[in-house]
Every structure is written in structure tokens, then in C-alpha cells.
Amino acid sequence: MYVSFVETKGGKTRPVLIRKLSAQTIEAFKITSKYQNKSTYIKQQYYPIKDWQSAGLNRPSWVDLGNLYSFPKAGLKFKEIGHLSKLDQVGIANFALSLKSKRRGKSQKAIHQRPSKKIQ
After folding, report:
1. Where is this region: Disordered (predicted)?
2. Has residue 11 been placed in a domain?
3. Is 43 in contact with 35 (CB distance < 8 Å)?
4. Is 117 within the bounds of a domain?
5. Range(s) of the domain holding residue 82
6. pLDDT tens track of the chain, all 120 residues?
7. CATH at 83
8. Number of domains the chain contains
């Protein structure tokens, strides 16, 4: 899928993992090969694709599960390059559940750590 850059002119064609396809929209996660220079916080949102070659990718890659993007289907041009292996399908589902659980735990901790208001 061609993705425009926000900061500069232009863009690039990049692989995405399609989560949901409807008559009007496509929901997708970015796939990236740029992992090493990411912060620890960002890295914890990236699932490493184990069978990246059989998925049609050219190099080791990660799915960014931190952001789900929604695009209007009309006018989009994309070509299928491959599919995740069963190993990666199960792995990404488990990883997503774990990530969701961690996020839920952080928000609950934040609620419990709020200082109580003193009534005067």
C-alpha cells in the first residue's frame, strides 16, 4: 500500500497486515523492517514475524500493533504479497492479547495511584 509521508513530500510503498476488509474500509497494521532504532516502549508493540519470507517480505519484519489504521477502500490500490503462516497467526493473536492486557493493567494502576482529594 502506498503511504504518504507526513513531514515531507512523497511517500513509499509499504507492506501492511490487513486486519479487516469491508465494503467501505480497510483496517490495517503497518509492517516495518526498521526495529533496531525504536525505543523500548515502541518495541513492546511490535510483533516479530517469524516466517517473514513465506509471508512475501524481503527482510525480517515486525507488525506494529500499537496503531490500527483505517482507510476508505474507494480508490485504494494494493497488491497481495503473501499471508502469515499459522505459526505467526497464532503468535500475533497471543501477542495482541498480551499487549491489550498490559495496557489494561497500566490504566488500572494509574487509577489506583491517583492521590485522594482531601476534603477541607
Report:
1. 101-120
2. yes
3. yes
4. no
5. 2-105
6. 555 555 667 677 788 999 998 989 999 999 999 999 899 989 999 999 999 999 999 999 999 999 898 888 887 777 889 999 999 999 999 999 998 888 776 554 444 444 434 333
7. 2.30.30.110
8. 1
